[in-house]
Design goal:
This protein is an alpha+beta fold. Helices cover 58% and strands 11% of the residues. The protein has four domains: 184 residues, no CATH class; 71 residues, no CATH class; 127 residues, no CATH class; 85 residues, Gyrase A, domain 2 (2-Layer Sandwich), CATH 3.30.1360. It is built from 20 helices and eight strands. Helix 1 crosses helix 9. Keywords: Cell membrane, Kinase, Membrane, Phosphotransferase system, Sugar transport, Transferase, Transmembrane, Transmembrane helix, Transport.
Length: 513
């Protein structure tokens, strides 16, 4: 598999552990003092956040395995424990955090694919097959653990420098990340850059405090690890947070934990009041901007086509607003009107800059939709100001998209030269009627059974490795429900389907058996 295909496969594998975040965020917030005040519920959510490196190892290992077998997850777990323990035995000060999970997950998945069908002599037969990868993973990881014990401090220093550069880059970094996040979307590579920002950028150490009135009665904070050595349990301390409208927080420490949390999402959920810089700006785009774009495309369509495209656009716009799932809507214009997608990427970068300039901080467990916005209200900084920005971006997107479409005569839904109202109306109903045969129909559209080598999926897209991508029938794929087809190489393609992608992948696999 080429490098691009490998990166794509890693991006797909990351989706499995990322899917854990919503339940962690839900438990944390619902159990918080300012919501339901159920300590055991918030503690359960905090336990998930604290063990995310191990959970990422398990998820990545299973995601990278060729048949998503549990043995790959077990191999990754063994690798994680061996990697962390062996490195710490050499250097007790080492804390690999999420990197240990990433490395162990990759080792577990690769080792599983290599050894899961190895045959051993009869007297060793018990250890053959699916039982062998966890054993081999532990042995192989010893080498990585030994190397990490001596070399990781240098790597950590380099990563810390990168993190400091990103965090101190201000508006340039925020704008650049926002633009790149969208520009990489068509290729499915945005997950790679997201993973660094979400789960690796910055670190904090969790502590427990008496309820803080200024933070809606919060009993957990996540502070700079360098200050915890000076904290005394039972005493009141002043904590300083950057990028917050409440930079000074007075609290009495009740417990100092050993939990180190990394990344903008994890730090935000754990109580770091300086986190959310690279998250808040997505709410105006997903809750306001893209629904505004959908409305603009509706009014820009010829009147005779509005009834047809309206149902689709309004459904996609509402999905973006409510859940933050935006790919189906974005892929309705990314290829037929790429100038709009470029505008969208620039506006996303500007949104991150604007939100941080006004001291707005917010985060999400799944995506920047209304559900996360409401759920994390008590954790957010200036949530009302963020709501104003959301409304403003609705009108900004509507105006820019509508007049750009009209002035440049862009081909958006309902304005295509080959728009067929009958096909558009019947597409969804046909797909439902043919659900039982959908897997077989996709196989035919993808060039036949022999042309399909690897079938993967993430939240909204099929990720496929084919023998020859030129043999696919794009018109048939679109008839079956594809929003777009992205050809990354002669062998690697992605089929954008929306949230039915995983179900379609299962149907294709079942039809191939």
């Amino acid at each position: 598999m080429n490098i691009l295909g490998s990166v794509q496969r890693l991006g797909k594998a990351l989706m499995l552990p990322i899917a854990i975040l919503p339940i962690a965020a839900l438990l944390l917030r619902l159990g918080a003092p300012d919501v339901l005040n159920i300590p055991f519920m918030s503690s359960s959510g905090n336990a998930i956040i604290s063990n995310l490196p191990l959970l990422f190892a398990l998820g990545i290992g299973i995601g990278l395995s060729k048949d998503e077998h549990g043995s790959a997850g077990l191999a990754a777990a063994v690798s994680y424990f061996v990697l962390v323990a062996s490195a710490k035995a050499i250097n007790p000060d080492i804390d690999m955090s999420f990197f240990a999970g990433f490395i162990a997950g990759i080792i577990g998945g690769v080792v599983y694919n290599k050894f899961n069908d190895v045959k051993l002599p009869e007297w060793l037969g018990f250890f053959a097959g699916k039982r062998l990868p966890p054993i081999m993973s532990g042995i192989i990881t010893l080498i990585f653990g030994f190397a990490a014990g001596y070399l990781w401090p240098y790597a950590q220093n380099g990563l810390n420098e990168i993190a400091q550069t990103v965090l101190s880059s201000g508006s340039i970094g925020e704008f650049g990340y926002g633009v790149l996040n969208r520009l990489l979307l068509p290729f499915g590579l945005h997950h790679v850059i997201n993973s660094y920002i979400w789960f690796l950028l910055g670190s904090c150490q969790q502590i427990q405090v008496d309820p803080v009135a200024a933070l809606h009665g919060a009993t957990h904070l996540c502070v700079d690890p360098s200050v915890t050595k000076d904290l005394v349990v039972g005493q009141s301390h002043t904590f300083y947070f950057n990028n917050s409208v409440t930079p000074e927080i007075q609290a009495t420490v009740t417990k100092i934990t050993n939990n180190i949390v990394n990344g903008d999402i994890s730090r935000f959920l754990a109580g770091d009041k300086s986190a959310g810089v690279y998250l808040a700006g997505f709410f105006p785009v997903m809750m306001g901007g893209l629904p505004g774009a959908a409305l603009a495309m509706y009014f820009a369509a010829p009147k005779e086509n509005r009834a047809i495209v309206g149902g689709i656009l309004f459904s996609l716009g509402f999905t973006a607003f409510l859940t933050g799932i935006t790919e189906p809507l974005e892929f309705s214009f990314v290829f037929i009107a790429p100038v709009l997608f470029l505008i969208h990427a620039i506006l996303t970068g500007l949104s991150l800059v604007i939100s941080n300039a006004f001291g707005i901080l917010d985060g999400f467990g799944f995506s920047a939709g209304a559900i996360d916005y409401v759920l994390n209200w008590g954790l957010a900084t200036k949530p009302l100001a963020l709501l104003v920005q959301i409304i403003a971006f609705f009108f900004i997107y509507f105006i820019i998209f509508y007049f750009s479409i009209k002035f440049f005569k862009l081909k958006t839904p309902g304005r295509e030269d080959d728009f067929n109202a009958t096909t558009a109306m019947s597409q969804n109903s046909k797909t439902e009627q043919e659900t039982s045969e959908r897997g077989k129909n996709f196989i035919v559209a993808l060039g036949g059974d022999d042309n399909i080598e690897i079938i993967d999926s993430c939240i909204t897209r099929l990720r496929l490795t084919l023998r020859d991508s030129t043999t696919i029938n794009e018109n048939e794929l679109k008839r079956l429900g594809a929003k777009a087809i992205v050809k990354l190489s002669d062998k690697n393609i992605q089929v954008i389907l929306g949230t039915i992608a995983e179900q379609v992948a299962k149907e294709i696999k079942a039809s191939k058996q």
